[in-house]
Amino acid sequence: MATFLTKKHLSRRTFLRGSGVALGLPLLDAMIPAGTALAQTAAAPKLRAGFFYLPHGAIQNNTSFGKEVDVWTSSGKGANFTLGKTVSPLEPFKNYVTTFENVENNTAMGSVHTLNPATWLSCVRPDTSAKGASLATTLDQVIAQKLGQETALPSLELASETTVQIAAGNGGFYAVTTCYSAPNKPLPMEYNPRKVFIQLVGDYASAAERDEMLRKNGSILDLINDRAKSLGATLSPGDKRSLSDYLDTVRELERRVKLASASDMSKFDVPDAPIGQLEDFDAQLKIMFDLLALSYQADLTRVGTFVMAAEGTDRNYPQFGDTDGFHPTSHHANQPARIAALSKIQHYHVERFADFVKKLADTKEPAGSILDQSLFLFGSNMGNSNAHDNYPIPEVLVGGANGKHKGGKNLTLPERTPLANIHLTILDKLGIPQASFGNSTGVISEI
Amino acid sequence: MRKNGAFMGYARKLAGAGVPLVWLALSAPAALAQAPGTSADAVKRFTALTDTYCVKCHNTEDWAGGVAMDTMDLAHTGQDPAIWEEAVSKLRGRLMPPAGNKQPSQADVDAFVGFLETSLDTSPKNSQIGHVPLQRLNRTEFQASLQQLLGVDIDTKAALPTEVEVEGFSNIASALGVSPAFLEQYMAVTRKAVKMAIGEPVPKLANVTIPVTPADPTDFPLGTRGAAGGRGAGMSFTYIFPADGEYHFNVPEEDFVDMGLYPRGAEHPATMVILIDGQEVVRKQIGGKEYLDIADRDGPAGKKVILQKIASSVPVTAGKHHVVITYIERARSFSNDPTGGGRMYQPILQSSIDVEGPYSPTGRSMNDSRAKIFVCMPKTAAEQRPCAEKIAEHMATRAFRRPVTEADMKPFMAFYESGAKEEGGFESGVTEMVVAILSSPDFLYRDIPAPTSSGSRLLTDIELATRLSFFMWNTGPDQTLIDLAEQKKLSDPKVIHEQIDRMLKDPRANTLVENFALAWLNLDELDQVEPEQFSAAMRKNYETEIRMFLASVLLEDRSVTDLLTADWTFVNDSLAQQYGIQGVKGSTFRRITLENQNRFGLLGKGAFLLRTSYGSRTSPVLRGAWVLDRIMGTPPHPPPPNVNTDIGVKDGEAPTTVRARLELHRTNPTCKACHGLIDPPGLALENFDNQGRWREVDVAANRAPIDATTELTSGLKINGPVDLRNYLLSHKDQFPTTVTKRLMMYALNREVEYFDMPQVRKIVKDAAASNYRFSDLINGVVNSDAFRRQGPEETHDKVASTSSNSAPAALHP
Questions:
Q1: A112·B175 Cβ contact <8 A
Q2: Is the pLDDT reported for residue A128 higher than 70?
Q3: Phi and psi at residue B220, in whole multiples of 5°?
Q4: Alpha-carbon A269 to chain mean position
Q5: I need a surface site. Which of A98, A237, B231, B529 has the fewest CB within 10 A?
């Protein structure tokens, strides 16, 4: 089948780069195979969750200019409130929005950048002396384990760019991801939209090919299962554990293969297959949001996490007066020009998030819009980027959660309220109540 | 060692209350035998040293860094090897005492380090053997193995998820997990790779678009536009053709004929030449008056005709081929078409080319890849199954890196049978079978079984061959190594030496540049820094230069110190200009001798200078930290929390040099404790701007002159890169020790622990005779106990033993 590359997807940073170095996969057709439709009971609501991470905190009342330049914090209390300028793109959805004051996450304290991403959704301080990764299952994965079992993908972990950045320790277990599916299993954050696309839609030229592939993959997975069991018999205890992780993964994939054969994408607005990570950052952000929205719409997943900018990133935003790079500029040293640039960058990211929220608000399902049935957290794990502190950190909750989250208010929480309390409350709203989460001290009843 | 060099808290339980136990030790009776190599005088001298310079902070009240030296016995450093190894590392880098505090003389430091290292090397407690757990192939190893087994090159960086890196290395066993995304993508890649290698038994007509990417001018024949370099002068790519047949090379519409009807690219005649694997297969005239006439006369239909005339049809055999499309005579057509913005110059091939085919496929010829798989070809139906069994055994033996039995093969034969029912018959069967073999965990995982009882076990010959091969080539052992292993010859050090020499000369050893050296030096990704007026082409130049340079030292088996002192490098014309070197013409890279000493070695390389800068300015802090970490092997601490780390120029102030803005690091004692150590190496390199160009003045600071003088913690004053380099080499074994430590981590697939250090030191000492040739370091690592033996699975934690708990009774009052 013919393939087309529209100019907007053509990027120099494709995987066909370099003469004779390596050849990537042949480009695929954008046609989506049809399958049998997923059976749905007519009005059954489907809860979705999503987590949207921005590094380097926000300009709040945390500069030497005080409240004057605080563009994040909402003014007013309770239902009588105005969104801060940075958060104002969410104005059309104000009824779905709760903003907070006085949130803290001290599990990242003192780590500068290296522990921020991983502690945002775990609220547990990792054991950095351990041999491998040693944290806790993150909030999104706790939710995925309960809500994600009916969909082909229990969850999606996305990023807009590589999360390996020098300023964040150049790799390591806790700076490169916000998602852990188990205390020792960090999940990779995918920043190549092409790979996300293939995960969602598959890499097939026709429905017949897809079915054949699914059948063959099923057989391969059976083989892997058998071989792994027989190999495992001769291993030492620690190695047995590693292999059993592998077997869990195989089982998970088998489950997805079964579900994948039942999905029907024909009625959705699927974008063209992206060729790879896009050079234009704005386009890259948009395509990742589009793919996440698509996966909610097509019910390919109900849980998503998106790292909108990498911790410690040097990417610059010249259109907002930042030529030094997001991370260097975040060390604003209380200079008005830098504070202004930072505020604009933060506003921009909320804008992109708001476009995504709009898409979901406009998608109507029998039980309501997707936004009605969702609960999203947008925020950062840092407060004042100039001092690398973790209090107060900016967080916003958006969505209806099937009526469980009544937004439209600004909550002035008690000082140093743990972020984990918000997480615990999210779990509660999604019907997964727990005694505690991370270093939580209780549920926030006002949410 | 720990990632960021942070000191771990070592729990120390004390009996007694602050009595200087050390003195008791000296006056204790002879029953307390002293560790070998420690004379009473030496212990006395160095105890006095620690009392003067260390105990003020490292004592049982303050517990700085979790260490108290007032209660530790220098006659028995072997009781606390983890702590003393850390001390050795800090002393060698002059990290301790912190900058700004009273400093011992270099002679004293050297003597103390020598004392400590001797006693650590001879301590019986320090002979532990580490354990490396079950390990899966990482992306690069998987890619190299597919290349070895199938002759196919897949870009796994694009196709598989990013791996967690430990200190820059992505081959550390404990960090290599699997996730569903990984497994799914891995299975897809495996299938595609096998299909590419075997070819399509029932080839489908496909149209693939290959984008134009910057190509090396040497790809093109002389006399063609491509060889002159420059944009749009042609393209060069490698493609795997799925079957023998006819393929059409079509130029896309946007390139050649614009959205309007004016065939811009065809206005002037040119000769298009297509070469496959260096052989010319097409030479045709395109463009010119005839084309213009067609466009004028026939409009949209004419466009189609033109595109058809330009397209070429070529018979190609299945497999990997190198395709070059280039032009002779005029490649650039002049166009005065105003709708194009009045552009005068229009390259013919701008964006991409379509490869469509195979038409009239005639099967699949034998090629490199097919030859690796099809060790036999059945001539009759009866021969098919036995041949398939042979193929399975051959592939599985190489893929699983061990001999296979008939029972092992049964499940894979089931895949053959099922695949053979498809249209492609025998070849479809073989395809399914090979996919199954390469999807098996026997391929994806490698394991060195732990000892069954306590202590360690010696690796078998085949385990050693595998470990050696993954170390040097990132893939499983080849036939030569397998044969030697079967003949049990690998335990002979002479044989090992020969094999290492052979493997180093093999092109597969390039992984030592790509995955070891570039990762160790953190120079593998240069994309993140974007200075103004810095082109992607110059970035590519830096990437090429650093790789060629590293290869010239490591793969040509020179002394590793050449990495710092080499007076040669590799440049093309634009890179030479960047470095201020005259007389280099042409865009091909060539080796030159540097005349300016400031440029010698790694510290003068654009890749390093760029990587350790910001887009807007240099960063002496990043450069200094890099030197301390990657060259000295003594990384500094990360910054403490809540510190204001910006040094941007304040509004309204006159711009100052970066050095001036960093002055606070020197005047504030809290900052100075670390920055007095970190900044100096970076300050000595201030003459290199944030792109690596040499400068005498700082243009951003009103042309203030660059001051590259600085003072190290030891009090030594240096000025500029040459002095810095001399300092780094002043202790001849320091840099080779760093290289060896990193090499060992890469080879062992685990972090280097304190109990490995005596072996590291031995390797370095032994290599001094050859002035630290790279192959001697490799030999040392491969012959070390750490590499040759597997220790028990870890149940101990990294906390050092509490020696005061196990102190002999005589010490207690």
A1: no
A2: yes
A3: -100, 145
A4: 21
A5: A237
- pLDDT tens figures, B483-502: 999 999 998 999 999 999 99
CB atoms B165 and A164 under 8 Å: yes
DSSP conformational letter for B635: P
Residue from the list A189, A227, A276 with its beta carbon closest to the beta carbon of B440: A227
Are the beta carbons of B361 and B255 closer than 8 angstroms? Answer: no
**DSSP string covering A380-441, please?**
-S-S-TTTT--SSPPEEEE--GGGT---SEEEEEEEEEEHHHHHHHHHHHTT---S--TT--
What digits encode the pLDDT tens for the residues B268-310? 677 888 999 989 999 988 877 787 788 778 777 777 788 888 8
* Gap between the Cα atoms of A45 and A48, Å rounded: 10
Residue B512 per-residue DSSP state: I
The whole-number pLDDT of residue A266 equals 64
A28 inside 8 A of chain B by CB? no
Gyration radius from chain A CA atoms? 22
Instruction: Measure CB to CB from residue A253 to each of B180, B450, B647 and give the nearest one.
Output: B180
Cβ pair B134:A128 closer than 8 A: no
Interchain pair A276, B211: CB under 8 A: no
Q: Does A219 touch chain B (CB under 8 A)?
A: yes
Tell me the shortest Cα–Cα distance from A24 to chain B, in angstroms.
6
- pLDDT interval class at A2 (50, 70, 90): very low
Nearest CA in chain B to A23: B154
CA distance linking residue B226 with residue A320, whole number of Å? 40
Q: Does A254 touch chain B (CB under 8 A)?
A: no
Percent of chain B with pLDDT over 70: 85
Question: How far, in Å, CA of B743 to CA of B782, rounded?
Answer: 10
* Burial annotation A142-154 (CB, 10 A radius, 16+ → b, else e): bbbbebbeebbbb
The pair phi, psi for residue B353, each rounded to 5°, is -135, 145
How close is the nearest chain A Cα to the Cα of B66, in Å?
14
Q: Hey, which residues does B275 pair with through a beta bridge?
A: B280, B324
Q: What is the C-alpha to C-alpha distance for residues B148 and B137, in angstroms, rounded to an integer?
A: 14
| Chain B environment of A337 (Cβ under 8 Å) | 651
Q: Which two tokens stand for residue B400?
A: 């699983």
- Here the tokens at position B605 are 């390389």
**Which of A21, A23, A131 faces B174 most closely, judged by CB atoms?**
A131
Q: Is B246 exposed, middle or buried (0-12, 13-18, 19+ CB in 10 A)?
A: middle
| Distance in angstroms (rounded) separating the CA atoms of residues A84 and B152 | 55
Which positions in chain B touch A210 (Cβ < 8 Å)? Answer: none
The residues facing A364 across adjacent strands are A369
Given the DSSP bridges, would you call strands B234-241 and A97-104 parallel, antiparallel or unpaired?
A: unpaired
pLDDT > 70 fraction of chain A, expressed in percent and rounded? 88
- Contact of A325 with chain B, judged by CB distance below 8 Å, is answered with yes
Sign of CA dihedral B577, B582, B588, B589: negative
* Neighboring chain A residues of B211 at a CB cutoff of 8 Å: 5, 10, 12, 14, 16, 275
Using the Cβ of A170 and the Cβ atoms of chain B, whether some distance falls under 8 Å is answered with: yes
Minimal Cα–Cα distance from A210 to chain B, Å?
Answer: 12
Residue whose structure tokens are 């798989």 = B373
Concatenate the DSSP letters of all residues of A204-250 into one string: -SSHHHHHHHHHHHHHHHHHHHHHHHHHHTTS-HHHHHHHHHHHHHH
Which residues make Cβ contacts (< 8 Å) with residue B528, sequence separation at least 6?
A165, A166, A313, A314
A31's torsion region: left (phi>0), alpha (psi -120 to 50) or beta? Answer: beta
**B207 to chain A: nearest residue by CA?**
A2
Residue corresponding to tokens 């409350």:
A425
